[in-house]
Amino acid sequence: MPGGKLPEWFSGQTVCFSKPKNLELKGVIVGVVLSINHNINIGIPNMQREHMPGVLDVQANVLKQGKTLFSTVLNICGVPRTDEEHIHLCRFHDYHQLIAILKDGDTFCVSKRNPPFDKGLELKQCGVHLIFEGDDDYDGGQESLDKLKTYNLSQKNWPTFSAIYESGSPIYATDDEDE
pTM here? Predict the structure, then answer.
């Protein structure tokens, strides 16, 4: 999605992992802000950016004492067609090898592949958010959940979509607009 700043709950691009007592790591959310300079060619003959399935140069790494234990490319589908900054969020669940290999004292970091596949990619900002047991539990009452169940997706999102529509940018349509 377009945007140039990660939410405040992300730490920096590098995190030294320290497991809290009696809490299990349930996942990691990686956030990146990137832009692609479309005036710079990819650097591979006969390859065009619009034929790429996604952004291939942002990776998450687990390091132990500065040596790479594990590395994986973030699953960022689609390539922005503008030079604008975009925010991408990727979640790794506890069953992913990246999480399974992460131990006390290891470093988790996000980086651009070296050398990059796409020479026009610029990694502007990146951050990591560790999710521990209980972090994503809902603390509200059952009554508010019951109310949410009565609305369909269009009804819940109508205030957002109508604000966009009324601003003169009818870029989304919902079921309610058809009625």
Answer: 0.69
